[in-house]
């Protein structure tokens, strides 16, 4: 039986890297199985594993709710966070170098967390999100502090058109001196969506320029939509 860590190692990371450079996002199909999705989804009602619950409407973030996990993280989240990061760090470093940003990320996730903790960013940022009928998430960026990693991932825990309708994942690209571009994605249950946290480089006639990006969720028409978000940096609060 192939373990999750082995599946991560066997991913075509060259293609993922190409997709990230070109689009600012990439999809890994079927990273986790149906049982793992259901365990994470049903775990939403557990107590003692979360540090904070957020009702989105209260903060004008949208309509729905989410919970931040507390440390120690569940094994499946820890495995994804630790073992996918080394493949994403070179992408982030290429982006920052292209945009002439004086920052390079360590290739080991533990070292990134050490940078976070030195900046008093010590709170876990992995979260599980729940949307019912009418739920949505406004366009945003997940930064959480001065130390941030510019790529994050989302695991789909429910199936579009079966468990819910609507609720598409939305990315927007704010192109300089032009109208914004919207990208609508429908990953399947068990898929891992990788995407930029806040920007990507784009090559122009005079070199690379910065394209700012935000993400959100369109309105859920029916059913319940669950996702797991994994951010690689820690938070101040």
Distinct helical segment count = 5
The N- to C-terminal Cα distance equals 39 Å
**Average predicted local confidence, pLDDT:** 96
Q: How much strand content do the residues show?
A: 25-35%
User: What's the β-strand tally?
Assistant: 15
Computed CA radius of gyration, to the nearest angstrom: 17 Å
Write the H/E string, N to C: HHEHEEEHHEEEEEEEEEEE
Give me the secondary-structure category.
alpha+beta
Which ranges are low-confidence, i.e. pLDDT below 50, for 5 or more consecutive residues? Answer: none
Largest sheet strand order: 1-11-7-15-5-4-2
Please give the largest β-sheet: 7 strands, antiparallel
Indicate the overall shape: globular
Relative helix content = 25-40%
Protein name: Prolyl 4-hydroxylase subunit alpha
Pfam families: Oxygenase-NA
Organism: Elizabethkingia miricola (Chryseobacterium miricola)
InterPro entries: DUF2086
What does this entry look like structurally?
With 237 residues, this protein is α+β, with helices and mostly antiparallel strands. Helix content is 26%, strand content 34%. Strands 1-11-7-15-5-4-2 form a 7-stranded antiparallel β-sheet. Strands 3, 6, 9, 10, 12 and 13 form a 6-stranded antiparallel β-sheet that branches. The chain has a two-stranded antiparallel ribbon with strand order 8-14. Helix 1 (4-10) runs parallel beside helix 4 and helix 2 packs across helix 4. The protein is globular and about 50 Å long.
């Amino acid at each position: 039986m192939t373990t999750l860590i082995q599946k991560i190692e066997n991913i075509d990371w060259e293609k993922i890297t190409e997709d990230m450079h070109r689009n600012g996002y990439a999809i890994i199909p079927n990273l986790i199985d149906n049982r793992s999705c259901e365990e994470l989804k049903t775990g939403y009602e557990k107590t003692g594993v979360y540090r904070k619950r957020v009702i989105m409407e209260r903060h004008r973030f949208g309509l729905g709710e989410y919970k931040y996990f507390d440390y120690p993280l569940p094994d499946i989240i820890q495995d994804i966070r630790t073992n996918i990061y080394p493949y994403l760090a070179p992408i982030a470093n290429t982006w920052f170098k292209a945009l002439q940003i004086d920052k390079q990320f360590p290739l080991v996730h533990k070292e990134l967390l050490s940078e976070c903790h030195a900046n008093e960013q010590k709170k876990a940022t992995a979260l599980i999100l729940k949307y019912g009928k009418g739920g949505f998430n406004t366009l945003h960026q997940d930064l959480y502090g001065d130390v941030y990693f510019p790529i994050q991932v989302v695991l789909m825990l429910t199936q579009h058109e079966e468990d819910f309708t609507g609720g598409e994942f939305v990315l927007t690209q704010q192109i300089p001196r032009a109208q914004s571009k919207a990208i609508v994605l429908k990953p399947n249950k068990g898929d891992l969506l990788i995407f930029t946290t806040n920007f990507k480089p784009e090559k122009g006639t005079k070199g690379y320029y910065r394209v700012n990006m935000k993400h959100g969720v369109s309105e859920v028409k029916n059913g319940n939509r669950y996702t797991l978000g994994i951010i690689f940096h820690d938070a101040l609060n």
